[in-house]
Amino acid sequence: MIKSISLAMDGSQKVDLKLPPEIDAALAREARRVHKPKSALLQRAVEAYLEELADARSVELARSQGGKPVPWAEVKRRHGLAG
Fold this sequence. Notes:
The protein is α+β, with helices and mostly antiparallel strands. Helices cover 58% and strands 12% of the residues.
């Protein structure tokens, strides 16, 4: 059985979400652990997912235009960042 959750944070659009019971239970445990509502955790998860998608699209665009990946150690060295 899938659990249905309705979410609406202040000034935000309402979203209906259906989660399998085991995911809902894990979400509830984490929400209790960090003393935040499930909606706050879900909002942050969606934000993080969208950021990852944007990053992936940027990489795809750079590669399609002939860009080459640069190792993180090289980026730090070029910008004078420690360790």
